[in-house]
Amino acid sequence: MTAIAVDIPLISLKGQQAEIGAEAKAAVARVLDSGVYILGPENKAFDSEFAQAVGAKYSLGVDSGTSALELALEAAGVGPGDEVIVPSFTFIATATAVSVLGAKPIFADIDPITMTLDAKSVEGACTPRTKAVVVVHLFGQPADMDPLMSLAKSRKLAVIEDCAQSHLATYKGRPTGSIGDLGAFSFYPTKNLGAAGDAGAVTTNDAGLRDAVNELRNCGRSAAAGYNHVRVGHNCRLDEVQAAILRVKLLRLEAWTAARRRVAAIYDEGLAGLPLKRPPLGSESSRPVFHLYTIRTDRRDALAADLRRSGIGNGVYYPTPVHLQPAYASLGVKAGALPVTEAASREVLSLPMFAELSAADAGRVVDAVRRFFK
């Protein structure tokens, strides 16, 4: 069977590479010429620049977004026998980061509008063993943090923000990653701020947590380095090449974010009145960054196939909730346990979204969706 050509992809890095290619190559050459490849000046500069960008006192580069989650949880004291409340409507790394520490993920349901953690569901999932909550700002939509932070404070729980998809998103004027105890960012290449491979960062406003993450990412070494290992740690450092490339891209992140919001506005206006649910465009208290523009419809699969026939890329994030994945069958959470999450997994469809998507192509996407429903 002949594959259908896609001329409007779901995600594309070609335009971004054309814009920053020469600068990125110069940055890589600078690192290679320096002879310093691990925890050097590029890391130090990026840590400072990224912390300032996301409104946190401290940022520490690590080798992936998954490592960022694991180190943030470990720095917060999560370990064997603990329980950590997480959403099930997320990439599985949100839960596996808990599991690798010997703790147990406890799945809570989501808000039907933002598809982020619902505070009432989190409260119902708490037990005496609950140690922390991982809040995912899914698709670039900030979660409603006030009730979650209030609940966490009352129960003395750590709050880790999973910001893998929410670079520069804000909640009541505060950037995601600066609100909870720690933030975990991914710089996977397709993220709003992406490296040329795997990379991530942990953010915090607490100097003690900063020191813990710094030690954990670098084989348990104290800040003085050398061979003074003060804890059992990991090798999760961000290399200098990736830090240098991220510094080039960070300079453009605000402009790229504004471009994503413009595309979202075209979709929001063009899809109004159709029998589907659109994501929130934003408000004074919540400014999303549209890592993905995700609609909901009970005709999801038919719409997806129709768009592909029209040459328009699309994707489903995520078709199976984490609590129903084979990897977590042993927890015994059955279908029906998280009704809002499970409904979302049946209905979500992500439309093309990247900063370089033209208004004309966004209009073509709108026209194709409208034709399908007519």
Characterization of the model:
This protein is 39% helix and 14% strand. It is α/β, with parallel strands linked by helices and 374 residues long. Helix 2 (41-53) packs parallel to helix 8 (240-250) and helix 9 packs parallel to helix 12. The strands form 3 sheets. It has a 7-stranded mixed beta sheet with strand order 1-9-8-5-4-2-3, with helices on both faces. A 3-stranded antiparallel beta sheet has the order 7-6-10, with no helix packed on it. A two-stranded antiparallel ribbon has the order 11-12. The protein folds into 2 domains: 14-250, 3-Layer(aba) Sandwich (Aspartate Aminotransferase, domain 2); 253-373, Alpha-Beta Complex (Aspartate Aminotransferase, domain 1).
- Order of the strands making up the biggest sheet: 1-9-8-5-4-2-3
Overall residue-averaged pLDDT value = 97
Secondary structure: helix percent? 25-40%
- Counting helices, strands and paired strands, the structural category is alpha/beta
Shape: globular
Give start-end ranges of low-pLDDT stretches: none
What name does CATH use for the topology of the largest domain? Aspartate Aminotransferase, domain 2
Task: Domain count, please report it.
Answer: 2
Count the DSSP helices: 12
- Summarize the main sheet: 7 strands, mixed
Give the terminus-to-terminus CA distance: 28 Å
- CATH architecture assignment of the largest domain: 3-Layer(aba) Sandwich
* Secondary-structure element string: HHEHEHEHEHEEEEEHHHEEHHEH
CATH superfamily of the largest domain: Type I PLP-dependent aspartate aminotransferase-like (Major domain)
CATH class wording of the largest domain: Alpha Beta
DSSP strand content: 5-15%
Alpha-carbon Rg, integer:
21 Å
- Number of β-strand runs: 12
